[in-house]
Write a structure and sequence with these properties.
The protein has 107 residues and is mostly helical. It contains 5 helices and 3 strands, in the order H-H-E-H-H-E-E-H. A 3-stranded antiparallel sheet has the order 1-3-2. The longest helix is centred in the middle third of the chain and has 13 residues, at 33-45. The chain is elongated and about 60 Å long. The termini are far apart.
């Protein structure tokens, strides 16, 4: 896959001064199952502690902390004062297709 999450992350590393794009929910599809489940739990809850997250996932708190650290370094999660929350995501813009559809609108 080209133009995916890892290409954007590579661009961020190469150009750290540029403000990179936010990730989209579609980027989570490229993640391993355990990281995708973690992000899903955080998005559903809005915000939770590491202990709550580990209990929700029925996983070891140290393993969850490692995944949260990794995902926060990639800009997918925010970790502030022991609370894990989803990072802001980019929204898909809806645009008119143009061409034939614009012409039909003139009738």
């Amino acid at each position: 896959m080209t133009g995916g999450m890892f290409d954007r992350l590579s661009g961020k590393v190469d150009n750290p001064d540029e403000s990179g794009e936010k990730f989209s929910i579609a980027d989570t599809l490229e993640l391993p199952d355990d990281e995708r489940a973690l992000i899903g739990a955080v998005i559903r809850a809005g915000s939770m502690s590491l202990a709550e997250l580990a209990a929700e996932l029925k996983a070891d708190e140290q393993e969850v902390a490692k995944m949260v650290g990794s995902l926060s370094m990639r800009g997918m999660l925010l970790l502030t004062e022991g609370s894990v929350s989803p990072s802001p995501m980019k929204k898909t813009a809806r645009i008119k297709p143009g061409g034939l559809f614009d012409t039909l609108g003139d009738f």
